[in-house]
Amino acid sequence: MVGEQTPRYHRIADDLRGQIERGELKPGEQLPTEWVLTEQYSVSRNTVRLALRRLTEEQLIVAGQGRGSFVRKRLPRAVWDWSQLESRSKHTSDAKGDQWASIVAESGRQPRQEVTVSIRRPPAEVAQQLQLDPETALTVVRERVRLVDNEPYALADSYFPEELVRGTPLMLPEDVSAPGGVLASVGLIQSHYQDEITVRMPTRAETERLSLPTATPVAVHQRTGYDSDGRPLRVMITILPGDRHVIRYDVPAE
Q: Domain HTH gntR-type: where (predicted)?
């Protein structure tokens, strides 16, 4: 029989998944302990662990440190139109905070950014994008943890050639903004962008800073801004957890 050929841990995972999908097990609720599940399904503890691992890999449950397994809480997804983000025609507000914060606020949610600024040599791949010598060049790095309703939603690190932004508001460790963008306000006009998007598992540091549940992949969005002469002005690398973001592009069919 097909049912008998299905591994027991698959059947246990299917049953628990159904309880989660039907709302019988609610977000944040603790699952029965491994011991209770072994008794309930008349299986070994190892079989129960395989079933729980399957649900963890499906991002339906998370394991607490020594506290058992819990139904994963789902953060509301943030939807980003990357074809308009950083468009100068869309960035005309004098409100405090950058365009990201303005978009979040317009959606009825509360944005906040934790900003640190440093001057250091860039990673090799960033130096290449900025056409800098990785051995000698310095960049101003603005590192931001972006929070929505006090939940960490993304990491955004921007790299600027130090000689271009020395003495500008971009050196300040705080939210800075200007109509059309801070770079434009100091005479550095980004005329076009080049985007690259990759997907990978997060580093340990990213997992901790973003409070990521187990097995949550992240999208890495790298945007390089160029002036009208093709000179790179900035590289921004954004880490976007896959469980809380939707990225949209509006691409003209011409």
A: 6-74
